[in-house]
Amino acid sequence: MLLTKIIKVNFYYEASQNLYNVKRLPSYSVSSQVEGPNHITVNDFAWQNLDRWPDKTLTVCAATGHGYTYAQTHRMSVSFAASLRLKLKLRNDDKVAIILPNVPEYPCIALGVLEAGCIASMMNPTYTAYELKRQLELIECKAIVASKLSYPNIVQALQELKSNIPVILIDNDSLPDGTIKFAEFAEDLGVDIDCLKEVKRETNDVAILPFSSGTTGFPKGVVLTHKSVNAMNKMIFDPKILGVEEASATHQSVLPAVLPFFHIFGFNLLMINLMGRGAKMVTLPVFKPDLFLEAIVKYRTNHLYIVPPMGKPIF
C-alpha cells in the first residue's frame, strides 16, 4: 500500500560528529539524589522519571498493537531480574544474550538483566547458527532470551558448543521442550524481589556487550560500562539536541522504534534515552516500508530516528 500523505515528521539521522561540541547540559536528579551520569546506573537513567508518567504507554507493537505502560514494564523488569537470580542462579557480571528483534518486551528484558546485576549482550536475531555460536562462546553466555524466530539457529549453536545454556522465549503460544516461558519470569509477582538487595553495581562495572556490525572481519564485542552509556545519554538528553519534549499530562512524543535495539544507536539513543523523557515507542520487529508508513500515520508519530536508506519510502 502506498501512503502519499504523511503527517509532518522531524527527521534525525545518525551523525555522531555533531555531538563533539555539545554544550554542557543541566543536571538531572534521580531517586538516589545523586546528580550526573558518573554516579548512577543505566537503570537509574532509564527510570529516573517513572513516577511522573507511570500510566503512559512505553512500547506498543506496530504489527499487533500489543504493548506496555511504563509502570507495567518496570514491575515486570523487577520480577524478571529476581527470577534470573533465584530460578537460574545468575549472579553479578554473568552475561545474558538478548537475541530479539524490536519487540515491546525489549526494555523490560534489557533493564531486567541489568537489574539482576548481569551484563546484557544484544545480538542480531537473524544471525546464522555459526555467527551465534561464535558470539555466545565469546561472551561466556549464561542465559539466552529470544523468540521462536531465532530458536532453531540457537539450538544448533548450543549443540556445537556442547552447552546447556537455559533459553527463555517471549512467545506466548506453545514452546519447544526444555525452554522457559518469559511470562513465567516477568509476570511472577510472587517472586521474592528482596534478592535484588544483593545486587551492588558501580558505574565502572560493565553494563552491556553489544557487537559491531563486522565491517572489518567478524563482529567485535564492545565493552560499555554504566558510566559510558550514561555519559552518551547525558550529552543528548536535552530536548534542544533531539527535539523530544518530556511527557506531560497533555503530551507524549511518539516515535517508531525501527532502528534495531541490538545496535547501540537503537539501544542507547532510541530506547534508554527516550525512556527518560516519557516517550512512546512503536516497535517494528522488521523494517517493512508499508508497516513503517502505516505506523507513522496510525500512531501520529512526531519524530523519527532512522538511517538514510529508511527514508526512501518517504522522500
From TrEMBL:
Record has Transcription as a keyword: no
UniProt cross-references to SUPFAM superfamilies, sorted A to Z: Acetyl-CoA synthetase-like
Subcellular location: Peroxisome
Superkingdom to which the source organism belongs: Eukaryota
Keywords attached to this entry: Peroxisome
Domain AMP-dependent synthetase/ligase per the UniProt entry, residue ranges: 48-310
Tagged with keyword rRNA processing: no
GO cellular component: peroxisome
MF terms in GO: long-chain fatty acid-CoA ligase activity
Pfam families for the chain: AMP-binding
GO BP: fatty-acyl-CoA biosynthetic process
Classification via InterPro entries: AMP-binding_CS, AMP-dep_synth/lig_dom, ANL_N_sf
PANTHER family the UniProt entry points to: BCDNA.GH02901 (PTHR24096:SF422), LONG-CHAIN-FATTY-ACID--COA LIGASE (PTHR24096)
Protein name from the UniProt record: Jg27586 protein
Lineage of source species: Eukaryota, Metazoa, Ecdysozoa, Arthropoda, Hexapoda
Gene: jg27586
